[in-house]
Amino acid sequence: MRIFVPPEDIVKKERVRLSADKAKYLISVLRSKKGDKIDVIDGRGKAYNAYIAEISKKHAVINILQETHADIESAINLILCQGILKGEKMDLVIQKATELGVNAIVPVITERCVVKETRKVKRWQKITEEAAEQCGRTVIPKVHEPVELGSLFMNHGSQMNGFIFWEEGGISLKEAVGKVITSPSLHNSNTPIFIVVGPEGGFTAEEVKLAERSGLIMTTLGRRILRAETAAIVSAALVQFLMESAFSPDGQ
Ligand code: SAM
Are residues 83 and 11 in the same domain? Predict the structure, then answer.
């Protein structure tokens, strides 16, 4: 069993202050009992072994046994910038990107986005919390407020490391990763690596040019045109795998 508890509710690494909805989740969903062991994650990279000291219909107390060092987070600081998708597709991308170890998700408004504004950031952040709890991550990815594609590039100057995935061209991902890991502006493994994926209607050639001027590499995922949600999930997995293998000493 595992639950996410915000750092401010972990008291002196001894006990956990449980919110009412977390207590309800323990009692009615997980059907926990007094004495049950439970892992607590703070969403910022810390994890604790704990146990249920008291539990009743409306109340639960969790005491911490020890801090643990789960080596579960990705070695690559991945930021997914996703052209806002309609309906559940965005939920799916956010859930899978969390499972795949992405550290932040930036909903991006592009020229061909059908959805130009959204009030779903809170809902998406909840999805990352649930997905992080489910897969055992200790970090909960941040879902940023939506930003126009042009402003995203403006905010990061011309020093962005990463990839813009374009269905109309680009070099192979393997080649692109080779360029990114040797680029002088890649200071260390904590440098943000951007994955930029378009909405259902794709990117315009101008948007891709802007991205390249910001330092991103135009990259193809092959000749087939993938759905945006497929491209986001596949690119997060492949970039992670290729960069981690390139960074690890024996290249495995
Ligand atoms: N404009 C496309 C068309 O003609 O149908 C649709 C765009 S595609 C559904 C959505 C996004 O997924 C693209 O903007 C791109 O970021 C990514 N994508 C899809 N297939 C890709 C591929 N083969 N290579 C690179 N990116 C791809």
Answer: no
